[in-house]
Amino acid sequence: MKPAPFKYFAPTSVEEALSHLTEYGDEAKILAGGQSLVPTMNFRLAQPAVLIDLNRVEELFYIKNENSGGLKIGAMTRQQEMERSKLILEKSPLIHETMPHIAHPQIRNRGTVGGSLAHADPAAELPAVMLALNAEFRLRSQQGERKIAANEFFIDLFFTALEPEELLVEISLPSLPKRSGCAFCEIARRHGDFALVGVAAVVTLDQKSQCKQARVVLMSVGNGPIAAEQARQALIGQKPTTEAIRAAAESAAEKDIDPPGDMHASVAYRRHLARVLTEQALTEAFERAKKS
Ligand SMILES: Cc1cc2nc3c(=O)[nH]c(=O)nc-3n(C[C@H](O)[C@H](O)[C@H](O)COP(=O)(O)OP(=O)(O)OC[C@H]3O[C@@H](n4cnc5c(N)ncnc54)[C@H](O)[C@@H]3O)c2cc1C
After folding, report:
1. Looking at ligand 1, which residue's alpha carbon is closest to its atom 3?
2. Under a CB-based contact definition with an 8 Å cutoff, are residues 248 and 231 in contact?
3. Which site from 107, 190, 267, 269 is most exposed, i.e. has the minimal number of CB atoms within 10 Å?
4. How far is the CA of 206 from the centre of ligand 1 (A)?
5. Do residue 66 and residue 108 come from a single domain?
6. Residue ranges of the alpha helices (H) in 37-101?
7. What's the whole-model pTM score?
8. Which atom of ligand 1 is nearest to the CA of 195?
9. Cα–chain-centroid distance for residue 217?
10. 79 C-alpha to center of ligand 1: Å?
11. 1 in a domain, yes or no?
């Protein structure tokens, strides 16, 4: 099918994009890579009256160092750019490790980091990884700008804290403390399919090699990325032994999530995957923390 008719704007600056957004509000949709929006328009599940295309807004394409040691990423940065970036490899190996799991190279060539986050698909990798990395998002409207933590941004299924007149413009990633390690694991039926379950883990060890901080985030098990709080509590202050990691994985699978069952996986199978993948991701993350 073809999309319903729409007006089209191709601004060349954020200011210009925001003036169109202010004029048309929730009648308008932002077009980033189009990899999620265009199929939904073709199926007429979305029928925006206006499309505001950000592909010529050059100021939104960047990955750069932050003075504090972290990274700043422009919302229109292509997923492929993130996958190949040396800065990402060096400063955020978790993102580097995750990128090849997102769809296929052709989709990553067009798909953007901002598009994936704003779309907020509960089976998407980047929302889970951004939550695990404690990212902060900069949102802009003609009224000004605000910063919002990843854990307040993802509200529900395909629903974020973005207001109709706001653009996601930038993602900030704090640097990780010394003796930190990360890992990402997922299971999909075929490589490139949306995952049945995925897990991002970020851990930090203290001087006694006990767990000082842990963030475990699961995807495809609820209405958005789920931070596993019980698993975190089970790990803090513990030596990362096989038993401690297994107990945390058990908490993640049994207490932290309430996964859906569908034609792709039953509830019991999703819990099983959550347990296995959490154990795997935590084991790898602690090994990396010990070596860092
Ligand atoms: C076959 C296929 C397989 C896929 N598999 C996966 C997968 O395994 N994992 C995965 O994570 N994704 C997958 N995707 C989705 C892909 O990663 C998309 O690129 C991504 O979800 C959306 O990014 P986009 O830049 O294409 O955004 P678009 O499709 O252009 O936009 C998506 C939504 O976000 C809004 N939006 C975009 N940018 C902004 C912004 N800066 N500010 C405010 N709102 C904005 C749009 O208005 C729209 O509502 C798949 C897609 C396809 C077609």
Report:
1. 103
2. yes
3. 190
4. 38
5. yes
6. 37-42, 79-84, 86-91, 93-98
7. 0.97
8. 8
9. 10
10. 10
11. no
